[in-house]
Amino acid sequence: xxxxxxxxxxxxxxxxxxxxxxxxxxxxxxxxxxxxxxxxxxxxxxxxxxxxxxxxxxxxxxxxxxxxxxxxxxxxxxxxxxxxxxxxxxxxxxxxxxxxxxxxxxxxxxxxxxxxxxxxxxxxxxxxxxxxxxxxxxxxxxxxxxxxxxxxxxxxxxxxxxxxxxx
Length: 167
Description:
- The chain is mainly α.
- 0% of the residues are buried.
- 94% of the residues lie in helices and 0% in strands.
- It starts with a helix and ends with a helix.
- It has helices spanning 3-7, 11-144, 149-166.
């Protein structure tokens, strides 16, 4: 065999080999690359959908967090308002109770003063009545007998003892 025969090119074989190559390429492209591309496209779509779902979930979580923080801020504000209102109400109630107690104390003081004044007038009237009665007794005794100076002193002492003993 000759070296030249090894390197020679047979045109019909060459054309058959090129046709065979194109057929193989077409078959590989049709039955291998196309399904692989479709599968990769489906995986990419699935991954994109999962990424979109994750982003939507993240946005929803952020919105829920913001809503939660807003609700907490509103709750703190409302609690502050309730506390402030309760303090004001308690302060008003305290002032009202103090005013009422002061007015009751003043009323009791006025009543006590009027009771004391009435008792004083009553005591003075009773003393006047007693003095009048004693004066009548003394006048009766004086009329019955003539009073000496010793008798006069005895009557005065007796009068003082009677007034002192009865009061």
